[in-house]
Design brief:
The complex is a heterodimer of chains A (289) and B (415).
Chain A: H1 2-32, H2 40-58, H3 62-91, H4 95-121, E1 134-137, E2 140-143, H5 144-166, H6 168-178, H7 180-185, H8 190-215, H9 223-237, H10 242-262, H11 267-281
Antiparallel strand pairs in A: 1-2
Helix pairs in contact in A: 1-5, 1-8, 1-9, 1-10, 2-3, 2-4, 2-8, 2-9, 3-4, 3-8, 5-6, 5-8, 6-8, 9-10, 9-11, 10-11
Chain B: H1 8-27, E1 40-46, H2 53-58, H3 60-73, E2 77-79, E3 84-86, E4 88-94, H4 99-112, E5 117-118, H5 124-136, E6 141-143, E7 161-163, H6 172-182, E8 187-193, H7 196-211, E9 215-222, H8 230-239, E10 243-247, H9 250-262, E11 269-272, H10 279-285, E12 293-295, H11 304-314, H12 327-344, H13 349-358, E13 361-363, E14 366-368, E15 370-371, E16 374-375, E17 384-388, E18 391-396
Parallel strand pairs in B: 1-4, 1-5, 6-7, 8-9, 8-10, 10-11
Antiparallel strand pairs in B: 2-3, 12-17, 13-14, 15-16, 17-18
The chains are: A mainly alpha (289), B alpha/beta (415).
Chain lengths: 289, 415
């Protein structure tokens, strides 16, 4: 019985680590840059498919792909914000109008990225075997790849948290999350910070994609599922709160695992029930203000 | 200035004249000649994207693409009423693996595009939804991917619908149950995708397995959006069954296989489909596929015709594109379609339908015919397949077997 409980909890944490990483990325984009980036999942997909392509065609170790996909996704995100969303921000009369305009633009971006991926890789489901080795852990078995992705998600998440709380740029991001106009008045180059946030969000998604591809099959239209989970987690954790998203990811992973243990069909239902309850009881999210 | 409108009398007179004119023109014999026709337009709604894209792309698509090219290279399909061969032109729309979109696209093909023929959508729930539409408009529909356990009872009321693929009780699972029980399997665990395909297969297995003394230890449904299947594989492992069945799609079969390796879950028989029957399954898992069981309908080893078809579809291509379950049946379906048009000598759906329903055809399967809307099971040349030494062999029923059924399967290779 205890073994069962441990299994369920650890399975939840393993999934939660990935959710957390995905959500931290969206949190930067939605919480700080105010862009409900519907195409967030497409960056995950691009990370995953690139890793698959590098691994199967050239034998590039997925861990090395982390160092490739992260920066490339960052540059892509940064440039997209600088060209597309900065213009939208300047032409939108109010923050509310910007939110709706940017969401529509993100929808367009989603279709463009998705179709580029379909053109390059086709619609097939792609998977590869990396560290598919059983590992004995706390009296039960887990795949080595899953434990590795969990460890990496944790390290990247914590590293990012330290970056936010200890560096000057991190402080600027936090200031922009709280009150963009005032942060701008205090000398924060707000356009730069917003582009940085969008780029970092894309990098997180790219990295999450690499990790996801180590455990799950990837394909061109997988993005939206992850975007939806990320949106739930971001709201759960509190808009604009990076630690909130991180914790929210683990909570969602655990809930999913526990519910799945009893009835797999109800996992997604449980996510939405949590979502509704949260909006009723604590609309600002766990760590939101 | 009197701007007098029409009086009632004048108006009625006008209406009477116009009405008489209309009636006369309607009675006039139609003198329009049969419009010259230079092609046969075939419409399809297919999952070019979405979770079923991998099935669509690997199963029916290579078959119809090869078939259309072959027929058109030879000039087309001979239609007597036009006195010439008409090449096939395809209109293919992407339904994004969404049943609702597929039904709308199907109606659009028929009503707006006015295609000459409809070729099938992809998936059990898709053909379940498409069949009544095709039948309503009187379009012959020879289905491809998709089982028909549920729809087969409705087929008498759907005279235009013909099912080619073999499926659960037609008659894969009875053969599987017999193979397993002969080797002494006593227990089974079933995981199935929570849609019509999974429900049909798990339901039929629930009937066929106990019949031969295989006890079912557990049944779990897999929601299509489920990411991490490990709770299900762990549950199955804890039940310690002789046989593990995963009646789902490649999206689930692939991770379920990887997790079984990861979690060291080694049942004596591992059954999965659709997914195991595709070449890409072997590409993904290599030697680990040894002994894994799936569904099939032929092996190129069985006949010259089968070998020729395999040559036509697979030569010079990566192993990924192979599918030994659907390909020969879909090919036979298209051959029947062409032969029926040529026999009818017209594109009239009703006449073609009557020929398909009543006559026999020579196809890659040999003598081939439909029985109450289903491709007769006497035309099947295999039901159960198994990966043995890197080749997907037919292992059941025994009269069609190309290799001895391996039971228990060897454990997953380590590392």
């Amino acid at each position: 019985m205890t073994i069962k409980i441990i299994e369920v909890l650890i399975t939840g944490l393993l999934m939660g680590g990935l959710y957390a990483l995905v959500a931290v990325g969206l949190s930067l984009q939605y919480g700080v840059a105010r862009i409900l980036n519907i195409s967030h999942g497409e960056f995950i997909m691009l990370g995953g498919l690139t890793t698959w392509a590098l691994y199967t065609a050239l034998g590039v170790n997925p861990l090395l792909s982390l160092a490739i996909c992260g920066p490339v996704a960052f540059i892509l995100g940064f440039v997209i914000h600088r060209t597309l969303f900065k213009r939208l921000l300047a032409s939108s009369a109010s923050p509310a109008i910007f939110e709706s305009n940017s969401m529509l633009a993100a929808f367009g971006l989603m279709f463009i990225l998705q179709n580029i991926a379909l053109l390059i890789w086709g619609p097939e489901i792609r998977g590869y075997s990396y560290l598919v080795i059983p590992v004995h852990f706390l009296g039960t078995l887990f795949g080595a790849n899953r434990l590795l992705t969990f460890g990496l998600a944790l390290v990247i998440g914590l590293g990012f948290y330290l970056f936010l709380s200890l560096t000057r740029t991190g402080k600027a991001i936090r200031a922009a999350a709280q009150d963009p106009p005032t942060a701008g008045l205090m000398g924060v180059n707000i356009n730069n910070v917003l582009a940085l946030c969008f780029g970092l969000g894309a990098a997180m998604a790219g990295i999450a994609g690499v990790l996801i591809s180590m455990c799950y099959p990837v394909h061109g239209v997988m993005g939206l599922e992850y975007t939806i989970i990320a949106i739930i987690v971001v709201v759960l954790g509190g808009l604009g709160s990076i630690p909130g998203s991180f914790i929210g990811g683990f909570i969602l992973g655990l809930i999913g695992s526990v519910v799945t243990f009893f009835e797999p069909g109800l996992a997604l239902v449980a996510y939405y029930v949590i979502f509704i309850l949260l909006l009723l009881v604590r609309p600002t999210g766990i760590l939101g203000r | 200035m009197a701007t007098k409108g029409w009086t009632r009398r004048e108006f009625l007179r006008g209406v009477a004249v116009a009405g008489a004119g209309l009636a006369l023109s309607a009675c006039a014999p139609k003198v329009t000649p049969k419009p010259a026709k230079d092609k046969i337009v075939v419409g399809m709604s297919r999952p070019l994207s979405g979770p079923q894209a991998i099935v669509g792309d690997s199963a029916f698509r290579p078959v119809y693409e090869t078939f259309v090219k072959e027929v058109n290279d030879a000039g087309g399909v001979y239609v007597e009423e036009y006195g010439k061969k008409l090449p096939i032109e395809l209109i293919v729309y992407d339904d994004k693996t969404d049943v609702g979109t597929m039904t709308r696209l199907t109606e659009k093909l028929i009503v707006e595009d006015k295609v000459d023929f409809l070729w099938p959508a992809c998936g059990t729930s898709f053909i379940f939804a498409q069949a009544p539409i095709a039948n309503k408009y009187g379009y012959v529909l020879i289905t491809a991917e998709g089982g028909a356990t549920t729809i087969k009872d409705m087929l008498p009321s759907l005279p235009y619908v013909f099912v080619t693929l073999s499926f659960s009780d037609w008659y894969q699972l009875p053969v599987l149950a017999e193979l397993l029980s002969k080797k002494g399997a006593k227990t089974a665990y079933i995981a199935y995708i929570a849609d019509l395909h999974g429900i049909e297969y798990s339901g039929v297995a629930g009937i066929e397995f106990p019949k031969v003394g295989i006890e079912i230890l557990g049944v779990k449904s897999i929601p299509p959006d489920m990411k991490d299947l490990s709770p299900i594989i762990r549950d199955a492992k804890a039940a310690n069954p002789d046989v593990f069945c995963c009646f789902a799609y490649p999206d689930q079969i692939m991770p379920a296989t990887a997790l079984s390796i990861e979690l060291d879950f080694n049942p004596k028989a591992w059954v999965g489909g659709p997914g195991v029957n595709f070449g890409f399954y072997y590409t993904a898992f290599g030697p680990a596929t040894e002994g894994v069981i799936g569904f099939t309908s032929y092996s190129p080893k069985q006949s010259d015709a089968a070998r020729a078809l395999a040559e036509k579809l697979y030569a010079g291509k990566p192993i990924d594109v192979q599918d030994y379950w659907g390909h020969p049946l879909y090919w036979a379906g298209l051959e029947i379609w062409k032969q029926a048009i040529e026999k009818a000598g017209t594109l009239d759906q009703k006449k073609i339908r009557d020929i398909i329903a009543t006559e026999r055809f020579q196809t890659v399967l040999g003598d081939t015919w439909f029985e109450n809307g289903l491709l007769s099971k006497d035309c099947h040349t295999g039901e159960i397949g198994q990966w043995i030494n890197g080749v997907y062999e037919v292992v059941g029923p025994e009269k069609w077997a190309t290799a001895e059924f391996v039971y228990p399967k060897p454990p997953w290779p380590k590392g």
